Amino acid sequence: MSHTPNDAPPPDLRIVLTDSLRPHEEHDSQRSLPLIERLQTEAIVINPPIVSQMGASQYVVLDGANRFHAFSHLGYPHILVQVAAYEGGYVELKTWRHLVCDWEATIFLSHLNKIPDIEIIDGQNIDAIAHIIFKDGRIMAIRTAVENTHERNAALRKVVAVYQRNATLHRTALTEPDDIWPLYPTSIALIAFPDYQPSDIIAAARYKAYLPPGISRHIIHGRALRLNYPLDALRDPNMRLSEKNLQLARWTQHKLENRHVRYYAEATYQFDE
After folding, report:
1. pTM above threshold 0.85
2. What's the pLDDT score for residue 111?
3. C-alpha span between 24 and 36 (Å, rounded)
4. Which domains, from first to last, does the chain contain?
5. 191 to each of 98, 149, 205, how far by Cα in Å?
6. Are 187 and 147 in contact (CB under 8 A)?
């Protein structure tokens, strides 16, 4: 059954075991390390990770791998999440494009050519695991001989690691290069990835065949943002999980009764991330 963003239901917020979450992608060290430092001093959860049920007691992280990594790294027993089911009709799966910035194009290509079993050819190719679009209009396809999701994702991790370690990585949802270059003056290339299906995301999480960070893009209609939920409620190792969820339910009800929750049906840009 199809739905529109305008009829999105209230968010399904839960506190779950941190160890019950399964990421489908690697975390991005450029983002996760500052987040870990921030969580050590902050008192609130701002934006909860988005997860989907995977079996009876596990959840696949759709969005928020860096937040999950930070909570896990800091030893939090529990984590606040928003549960959103693929089959519910309110989750769209798309892909980000990567912008490689603050590097030299020739050096970038030389690093890619050193990756074993990776082939880079001119033009577009239907079998490519990714395409490189340069500012001068050149397009190159990255190919590798793979037989399954494990091998494909492993090859992609090697490719992304090259510019993640040596350049500045930005993500964009824009598709037209001419719209992108003026926004990122130091960019040298745009990396485009093929589309994925929900089954690809679940398989990556279940079998630890992780995607590189920042490729999958989940659009959640009815997403909960800026919760400002107290972190102390998650840190407490002595309070039972059921008690923490009861506390969350009371907190949520109080917010609703006092009109502290506002729903925006339109697409928005936030400038305070």
Report:
1. yes
2. 97
3. 20
4. 5-93+218-257 (3.90.1530.10), 97-192 (3.30.1760.10)
5. 5, 19, 23
6. no
Closest CA to 104 of 220, 186, 213: 186
pLDDT of residue 5: 53
pLDDT tens string 228-237: 999 988 988 8
Instruction: Please give the backbone phi and psi of residue 170, each rounded to the nearest 5 degrees, phi first.
Output: -125, 150
Confidence bin at 184 (pLDDT 50/70/90)? very high
- Report the C-alpha gap between 112 and 108 in whole angstroms: 6
| CA 141 – CA 156 distance, rounded (Å) | 13
